[in-house]
Every structure is written in C-alpha cells, then in structure tokens.
Amino acid sequence: MSKTALDQTLTIDTVPAIPVSTVRDYFTLLKPGVMTLVVFTGAVGLLIAPGHIHPFLALVAIACIAVASGAAASINMWYDRDIDQHMKRTMNRPIPAGRVPADEALSLGILLSIVSVTVMAVAINLAAAALLAVSIGFYVFVYTMWLKRRTPQNIVIGGAAGAFPPMIGWAAVTGGIDLNSMALFMIIFMWTPPHFWALALFRCGDYAKVGVPMMPVVAGDLATKKQMLFYTILLLPVTLVPYFTGLLGLFYAATAAMTGLWFLRHAWRVLRNAEEKAPQKMFGYSILYLFVLFGAMVADIWLEGFIT
Fold first, then answer.
1. CB 41 within 8 Å of CB 291
2. How far is it, in rounded angstroms, from Cα 45 to Cα 135?
3. Where are the transmembrane segments (predicted)?
C-alpha cells in the first residue's frame, strides 16, 4: 500500500463518529421520569375533583399535561446545555452529548407548549389551559432562566411549577380552582424542597462545579438539613387539609399521617448524620411518598363510594 493510501486509511479510521439522533434521544429531552410524576398527580387532581368529565376528554386533559411537562423539560435542557456538559448527572443528556442539536430541542419545546395549551383550551376549558400555560412559563422563565443560577431559594420558589398539575386536573373537571385544589398545590410545593435538597446533598460537587447556588453549596450541609426538616414538619399538617375540608376521609388521613411521619424520620436521620447514605434514602423515599400519598387520595374516594 502506498504512503498516500495508508495516510487516507489512518485518517478515515481516526475520524470520530458523529453521534446519531434517535427517537429515544428526543423522548429523553422530555424528561420521562419527571413526566410520570407530573401526569400521575395531574390525573389524581382530575379523578378526585367534584363533577363529571367524559372519559375521552379526561384522557385528552392528561395528555395535554404530559405534553406540556415534556415541552418545559425540553426548553430547560436547551437553556442548561452549557452547565449540563460539566455535570456528571447530566453530561450524557442528548444535547451536551451531541446527539440532538440545541435549536431542535428549543423548537420542540416551543411547538409542544403551543400544542398542549391550545388543545387544552379548545377541548377542555380556558381555566385549565391558563393554568397549564402558567406552569410552563413558571418552569421555563421563573425557575430555569431566573432563579436557578441566582439564589439558593431557587427550588423553593421555582418548585411551584411542579405543583400545578393537580390544580390543572382539578380545573379540567370544575372549570376553576378552590381551597381543595390549592391544598393539592401546597402539598407538592412543600414537598419539593426536602425532596430536591436531599438530591443536592449528594450531588453538591456537581452544582458547585458549574456555579449553581444550590442550598448545600451556598449555606452548607447543616443549614440545608435543618431546612429540610423544617419543610418536612410543615408538610405533615398541609397533607391533612383535604381531610379537614371534607374532601377526603379517614383512609387518606391515616395514610398521610403514617407516611408523613416516616418522611419526617428520614429528615431527622439526615440531620443527625445517622448514616452516610441517608440523603440518598430520603430522596428515594420522597418519590415513593408522593406516589403513595396521591394514590391514597384516589383510593379514599373509591372506598367512600364503595361503602356508601
């Protein structure tokens, strides 16, 4: 083989492969893990709301919530692409890994936002559509673009974005909001800080490396753990509001009390440094806790109907 041919062969062999986009990459942009929780809490709000909605329209409303969640996540990934490439937890996401162009992620997010809000307005009602639009805007503009890189209270205020789904589901049935739907909002709002700060405690190095002022980075571990305990204590009475308003019964109240006390135990063990992996365990339990709590709401309504 001639030197020229050999050089060409070596050049071809050493050219790095260009990542190829797949359907899975675009689906990953929608943060399906987060979407699952969003859809579940939104569906619960719809199922326990007083009134009636046609089953097909109920599915449309839930689909709109899912699409809106994915839309906000895609825009979030577009905006955070500069820091995602330096964080171990996020560096393999489709944009920093080079599998999806940033402008395509932004375009996808904008398109899905418009579709979800429009369909919700036309097929369901304006109140649900307005809340859906606010939830997208809050996550994108208030949390992602404004608070996340500026204040350690980012997840406290910005966490409101994740608390909208049950209110949206409720509004899809009732056409508005009331004390009970606001109680559902407040449950997730109070749950978010201890949930996310538990993650931040064992991912602190990642956030510090990219300059995101998460609570453990700015205030230190001890101050973060104290605030986690504070919010977990506040969460317990908030979860009992639907019982005291008469929306839900004793089954829900008992479930909320028992799971809330166990959540509080996790927060206490994190504060007392009971074990090295206590924050990881609290983070894992926090996800299970919210699923069980909202599942108990539906079960309580079903049991009440079965008994009567």
1. no
2. 15
3. 29-49, 56-79, 110-143, 155-177, 183-202, 228-244, 283-303
Judged against a pLDDT cut of 70, whether residue 11 lies above it is answered with no
∠ CA 279-188-152, rounded to 5°: 55
Name residue 257's amino acid: A
pLDDT single digits (tens) 147-196:
999 998 898 888 899 999 999 999 999 999 999 999 999 999 999 999 99
Residue type present at position 298: V
pLDDT of 275-292, one tens digit each? 779 999 999 999 999 999
Close Cβ partners of 194 (under 8 Å, ≥ 6 residues apart) = 228, 229, 231, 232, 235, 263, 267, 282, 286
Q: Cα(68)–Cα(31) distance, rounded to whole angstroms? A: 11
Query: Are 61 and 72 in contact, with CB atoms under 8 Å apart?
Result: no
Label residue 244 by pLDDT band (50, 70, 90). very high
CATH of domain 22-176: 1.10.357.140
Q: Please, what sign has the CA dihedral across residues 201, 240, 62, 119? A: negative
Q: Mean pLDDT across the stretch 112-136?
A: 98
- Tokens at residue 122, please? 């036309």
Amino acid at 112: L
Q: In whole angstroms, what is the distance from residue 238 CA to residue 253 CA?
A: 11
Nearest one of 192, 234, 174 to 49, comparing CA atoms: 174
Give, for 169, the enclosing helix (H) or strand (E): helix 165-174
DSSP 121: I
Residue 36 has phi, psi (to 5 degrees) of -60, -45
Q: pLDDT band at 18, cuts 50/70/90?
A: low
The token pair that represents 97 in the structure block = 């890994």
Q: How many CA atoms lie within 13 A of 151 on its CB side?
A: 11
**DSSP 8-state symbol, 20:** -
2: which DSSP letter?
-
